[in-house]
Amino acid sequence: MTGLLDRLVDDAGLFPPTALAPADAVRRHRADLAAGHPLHSHRLLVPAGRLDEIRDHLDAQDRFALGLIADGGPTDDPGARLARAVATIAADPRLTLALVEAPVTVFGADPADAVPAVLDALRDNCVPDVSVFLEPAKPAGVDALLAALPRPPARTAGVKLRCGGVRADLFPSTADVARFLVACADARVPFKATAGLHRAVRHHDPATGFTHHGYLNLLLATATARTTGDAAAVRADLEITDPDRLAAAVRELEDVTGVRELFVSYGSCSTATPVTEATALLDPAVPDPARKDPTR
Length: 296
Fold this sequence. Notes:
The radius of gyration is 18 Å and the shape is globular. Strand 3, helix 4 (78-91) and strand 4 form a beta-alpha-beta unit. The protein is of the alpha/beta class. The strands form two sheets. Strands 1-2-3-4-5-6-7-10 form an eight-stranded parallel beta barrel, surrounded by seven helices. A two-stranded antiparallel sheet has the order 8-9. The two termini are 23 Å apart. 42% of the residues lie in helices and 18% in strands. It is built from 13 helices and ten strands.
């Protein structure tokens, strides 16, 4: 299972519900880098507007790879804000730009206008091999977004799937997620995921009342989208709630490389829970190195 899970989890500790303070986010990420668990991508996700908050807590010897997330300020042009953040990273020897994520709504309502705006902001400030992942306003908007991506792109251009959040309306249905995955598979466009995915298996959280997608469900569904293109079969994978059944199906996946070329990674506010759950479900003989730290 190593290849399937390698570098799957991006560190989204700055984001809700964990929402670590910058000093705590840096401290946890530094510890995760030292531990070097293969499930972690060792990328820290940082909004462009909060980049300086992270830099303030770095030591001279730190070397962080960042996933930079475009955001908007009250008076800022989002393209200029993103370009400045990219330039700041390039000038700081402690930082490397690993990828860029951008909600298209920050740049405009129409993906046909927003996508070029994002790429223009990166063109003069970003090395060509840095990937950019664009997030539609809703998963159902993926078709218009895919149509707006350049062919062939000047850099790796993918899309982003939001799987949850702090409100019920931010959790897409399994039907919407299935359509998103099939669209990406058909177009052969990679995607990242975010929010609500720190647990491995689809489950209901009684504390919030939300039903969360599971990251193992998403991996299995991605494989089905690639091999069959059948949205109903993909949806069935997303709706599995039996951990043993899901783990058995994941263990049988064959084209691991193809699955991960399509499903690049996902952001999790917890970096410990994904490791704990993968260990328990897929390889219980492997000790879990995660520390007992409530911030993780």
